[in-house]
Structures are given as C-alpha cells and as structure tokens.
Amino acid sequence: MNVKEQVLETLEKQKGEHISGGQLAAALGVSRNAVWKAVKSLQEEGYSISAITNKGYCMERENDILSVQSISKYLLPELSFLNLEVHKTIDSTNTRAKEYAAQGRAEGMVVIAEEQTAGRGRMGRSFYSPSSSGVYISFLMRPDFTAQESLFLTTAAAVAAAQAIEEVAETEAVIKWVNDVFCHGKKVCGILTEASVNVENSMLEYAVTGIGFNLWEPEGGFPKEIQSVAGSVFQQKKDKQNISEAEIRSKIVASMINHFWEYYEHLTEKSFMAEYKRRSFLIGKEVYTVSDTPITGTAVDIDDDGHLILECQDGKRIALSSGEVSVRPVS
Fold this sequence. Notes:
- The protein is 28% helix and 25% strand.
- By secondary structure, the chain is α+β, with helices and mostly antiparallel strands.
- The protein has a seven-stranded mixed sheet with strand order 3-4-5-9-8-7-6, sandwiched between helices. The chain has a five-stranded antiparallel sheet with strand order 13-12-11-10-14, with no helix packed on it.
- Helix 2 crosses helix 3 (32-44).
- The N and C termini lie far apart (54 Å).
C-alpha cells in the first residue's frame, strides 16, 4: 500500500477518534509532510477528515465513501489475500473481472462498485444499477472443476447474499430458483455467473460471479418495467440511521465476501445446498417455465445438483437446469 492508502486504513480503523500527524507518521514510517499530503488528497476525493491543531486528524463517523479500507475491516482475517478494487462508478463489475481474467490475473480479484452504467443480468438482460441505492460485486475465480459444476457458484452466491442481508439488515431473505434473492416479497438481489470453458476437457478456465444488491429504493423509484418485481433490502433510507450508507454497503460487501469465499473454497462439498433448499420459496408452488415451449407444474424439490424438480399434471417429474429456462410462480 502507498502512504495515502495506509493513512486511510488507519483513520478508518479509528473512525471518530483523533490521531496526531506525528503518531501517524511514526506508525507508518513516513514524514509528517507525507501524512499531510495524503490527508489533503483524501479530502479532495471527498473523505470527511477533520484536522484540528493539537488534536490531529479524524475520519468523521458520517463519512459516506465506500473504500477498500471500509470493507476490509469487516473481512475475516484469513481472507486478507483477496485483492479488492472499489469504484464509485463502473460500466459493469462482471465485465471488469472478465477483462482481468483475460489478462491472466490470479483468482481472488473482487471488483466492487456503487453504480454500474451497463450492469448485466441473465439471458442478455440489463441489470438496473443506479448510484446511491445499491452495491455491486464480482468475484474472479479459477476453479478446478467442470462447466456443469459452475451452477454451484450461483447457488452458493444466493445463499451467501441472503445470509449477508440477514446479518446486516436483520431482514428475512429467501431465494427464488435459481439466482434471485427476495425480501418483503420483492427481488432485492440478482446474481450472474459467467465462465470461459476449455473445450478440450470441459474444465473452467475462469469463472466470474457477480452479485447486485438493491439496498434502498432509488430516487424516483424503480423503472416502470420492473416496479412490480424490484424491491429494496431497506424500506427507507432512515432505516439503520445510526450508521452511514457507506458503512452499510461495507458491511454487506464484507459479509457477502466472507460467506461466499468460504463456500467457494469447498464448493464441490455442497455444504450450502441444505440452506439453499430451506430458503427456496418456490417449493410447493405451481410455476411455469419461461421458454419456447412453456411447461406448468408444481415445484416439489431442488436436487443436490441444483436442479428444480417440477411435477407436471400427468405425474411426470422433470429436472430443470438454470441454463435452460427461467421459472415464475403462477398467479
């Protein structure tokens, strides 16, 4: 880390408390002038850092900027090797992660943004990703398993997202097969996994899993075409008013990383599947497939490979793959 990053990390850890320039300089092994320049640069970037004679520098508690440092303090110590990259705005976190994969970057890159200008969802759809209302995360992985097993990345991410929501927002989160997380009866989180496959052995060269959280309803509401489906984790921005929006984002992101990476490291053990099934709200409901040849039936189970088991009216059971169809509850 450079001096500015070190200063930011130290001030983040002691948010709301003053630390003198001399103490900072001694702790980081740099000059007081270097500390002063770093603070000035951070202030110009929008960080609320006060400087008071004889007291020192202080990161204000209401500081509202998402940063690597604001997230890292909530990460499990064993995940310090992950390479976090935070953006105010980006075209797509998945696109950036895929670019890094093509460049040969090692797994463990985590691209995070407060806004996407070209967010992407399943089946070529766009993913609405405005500023000031959500947070978007993509993981770059180089897993040693087949393309077929990549479905587990999506199911593991859904469970991790639901757990992160419940930890931070204390709100029940359930899963709509295969990749949507719901709160208050509406979709608050979407997941997209993309991968490159070696055609010679059907093994993955890399995989990118992206997760988008709607934390608050955007100003002016959701676009008309998704209003009936889209919702937010927090019903109002005044919820959790004792901490800043950046702090909420930081906690959600860190919790997501903590849970997802633990699942990823033991992915083929499928330890998350029981939780995935428990949270699935389609089980027992009549659903129909969104496909060229629609099928209607009752969702009766999710098997250990993540397939939705549909029982048709004639009693026949079929296993649906997420790569083939989407499903919706029958109204």
